[in-house]
Write a structure and sequence with these properties.
Number of helices: 6
Structural class: alpha+beta
Shape: elongated
Largest sheet: 3 strands, antiparallel
Strand content: 15-25%
Oligomer: single chain
Order of helices and strands: HHHHHHEEE
């Protein structure tokens, strides 16, 4: 299992959230304890709001293990095409994470008049899902024709 700094941050965020929940249950005795509880609760909520940054992977490594390396290549290209499609400030803020959900070969070919109609991977399709804060699933983008069609 790949261990990253974001997974460590995730575990720390979980610990802060548990501590915040515990602190809210205990009765308050002093004003500084109330401030400490508020800060702990705020940190826990912030940590869970940032779930897309530490808990949601891009999904490409799932396809790296496939026997056919085309799956990994198409997954990577679909991920990049999805971010290209989602390239505006509002969407970047509202949906900060994306994951490749599915990659499959399709017998339907792209049109020859299409800008990339003669590519070797134009018969492949992929689905990329965006995620908002707190890990809420967002829209599903279906990428085809080597990233030129959505």
């Amino acid at each position: 299992m790949f261990w990253s700094i974001w997974r460590t941050v995730g575990f720390l965020a979980f610990a802060v959230a548990v501590g915040a929940a515990t602190a809210m249950v205990l009765p308050s005795a002093r004003p500084w304890q109330a401030r400490a509880r508020s800060v702990t609760l705020g940190a826990g909520i912030l940590a869970w709001a940032l779930v897309p940054f530490w808990a949601i992977s891009d999904g490409i490594q799932r396809f790296d293990l496939h026997a056919d390396p085309t799956y990994a290549y198409v997954a990577q290209q679909a991920y990049q095409a999805a971010w290209f499609h989602n390239d505006n400030p509002i969407s970047r803020v509202a949906m900060p994470a994306a994951r490749v959900e599915r990659v499959w070969p399709d017998s339907e070919r792209c049109m020859v008049s299409h800008p990339r109609g003669d590519e070797p991977f134009d018969g492949w399709r992929a689905e990329v899902r965006f995620y908002s804060y707190f890990g809420v699933p967002g829209p599903l983008l279906r990428v085809s024709c080597s990233g030129w069609s959505w």
